[in-house]
Specification:
Chains A, B: This is Redox-sensing transcriptional repressor Rex. The structure is a homodimer. Chain A is an alpha/beta fold. Helix content of chain A is 41%, strand content 20%. Chain A has two domains: 8-77, Orthogonal Bundle (Arc Repressor Mutant, subunit A); 84-197, NAD(P)-binding Rossmann-like Domain (Rossmann fold), CATH 3.40.50. In chain A, helix 1 packs antiparallel against helix 4 and helix 2 (34-41) crosses helix 3. At the A-B interface, helix 1, helix 5, strand 11 and helix 8 of A face helix 1, helix 5, strand 10 and helix 8 of B.
Chain lengths: 206, 206
């Protein structure tokens, strides 16, 4: 699938296309033009055509893209046709909020385990998940073939959690802690950091 | 300040540079090379030099960048030398988690008001903020000169909140609801969506 290197910016737009395409399919819409997509998603139609052209020629001139086919292709590219188990460390407000997203993560991606180091958090119920102690992390992750780890602990604990994730064999980490974590090069880390989001938004204020 | 158009990718990296530079300053480090920055931040040093060159020539060959000067410049570019008040709608787990980030948002950016439409949320205390009813949103935002609005309500309510923000005069919106919102072209919207974060991370799994 990864015959060419796709830029991160493109990879980040694909889930956004996917969400709207899923909305269209629910309304039984069969085809969509790059103009429609651009208008709805506030993106340049030429940009959208370029993004989708990375993955082969899906659009037909004057007709547009076949919604079902495009959904299938994007799901394949993003590997959402695979089962992907996710584990989360840090059962505070943010961790609880993210665990509640399981409802949105239809497809085959799911948070299957939540961990915390605080005794008062362990045993708490978040929807159908019970917060487990850190001592069970490696075993649980390996038993559940967890591939993505989410960090929602304070900055001071994030590196230790990252080390535990690496030890247990996760392949990618989504880090919400406001700190840079060090991991081996083969582990992909994305940062989802509220402070940097707000600071980059400030740039666009007049 | 905005004499040239800077790409969103660059704007998103600036807060990441800033965080590390602040760490360096706390350790009394005076200069830093693009190699050091690149190693610490997992970015290509050439990319970093290119990013920083957008804003003028700050680096000295063989010496590197002056940490204090670079912090000052990036803060100016991101407008963090201004006071920026922020309001948040949706006092659920995510809203509470974000309100707790006020501690990290040193500088002059601060969440000054939290709103919710649910009677059981109104009046609750989140740190030093009291959750207010939606009926007070426009007045509070105008009185506090709020410039950025954060949406942490369910998808079904997000557009209505966005409309209220626009009516009250905010200039930019950070939307955590998993839905595309429609606002006038002059309002900048950033999406911080957990689902798309996870889906784009899945692409990098082998």
């Amino acid at each position: 699938m990864k015959t060419m290197k796709i830029s991160e910016a493109v990879v980040r737009r694909l889930p956004i296309y996917l969400r709207y395409l899923n909305e269209l399919r629910m309304k039984d819409v069969q085809t969509v033009s790059s103009q429609d997509l651009g208008h709805k998603l506030d993106l340049n139609p030429a940009q959208i055509r370029k993004d989708l052209a990375y993955f082969g020629e899906f659009g037909k001139k004057g007709i547009g893209y076949d919604v079902g086919y495009l959904i299938e292709k994007i799901r394949q590219i993003l590997k959402l046709d695979q089962y992907i188990n996710v584990a989360l460390v840090g059962a505070g407000n943010l961790g609880r909020a993210l665990s509640n997203y399981n409802a949105y993560l239809k497809d085959n991606m799911k948070i299957v385990a939540v961990f915390d180091s605080m005794p008062d958090k362990i045993g708490q119920q978040i929807n159908n998940l019970t917060v487990k102690p850190m001592s069970e992390l490696v075993e649980t992750i390996q038993a559940n073939k967890v591939r993505i780890g989410i960090i929602t602990v304070p900055a001071s604990e994030a590196q230790k959690v990252a080390d535990d994730f690496v030890k247990s064999g996760v392949e990618a980490i989504l880090n919400f802690a406001p700190i840079i974590i060090r991991v081996p090069a083969e582990i992909r880390v994305h940062y989802a950091d509220f402070t940097t989001e707000l600071q980059s938004l400030a740039y666009y204020l007049d």
